């Protein structure tokens, strides 16, 4: 029998690798992106539409939702170079379900960007593994966001990685 944690990780990886898993792209967008070429990381600020979240009453007029944010850096063939999984709990000062459904939630993610990265894929799931949103950012957008004054990221085969 396969342990649940291993099975969940395999399902997350399968969802990240295959493009058909990106059916709900409209629920997740990138608000900002800053690339740090020295550390080969990018700081993303994502905007998540709250209408599909599983909100629970947290008391004192507040609500909360548990999420899982999965990120992956992919190469040109779609192979995963590096990935991470992060559990998040978001809170709101609202208990009204109608107002919660119209709200947007900001999420932040620091993603490792190896030299061969072609795109970064984000996947947001509820705590019970239901897909809420997915989004991809391509290489050109990532490298266009390099912090000013930093040298370009070196590539092994063609000099600079900037387009």
Q: Please write the string of helix (H) and strand (E) elements.
A: HEEEEEHEEEHEE
User: What is the strand tally?
Assistant: 10
How much is the radius of gyration in Å? 17 Å
Low-confidence parts, pLDDT < 50 over ≥5 residues? 1-25
Shape: elongated
Please name the CATH topology: Immunoglobulin-like
The CATH superfamily is: Immunoglobulins
In the CATH classification, which architecture applies? Sandwich
Number of helical regions:
3
Report the portion of residues in β strands: over 45%
Largest sheet: 5 strands, antiparallel
Quote the distance from N terminus to C terminus.
47 Å
Specify the CATH class: Mainly Beta
Q: Kindly give the count of domains.
A: 1
Class by helix and strand content?
alpha+beta
Helical fraction equals 10-25%
- Mean pLDDT comes to 76
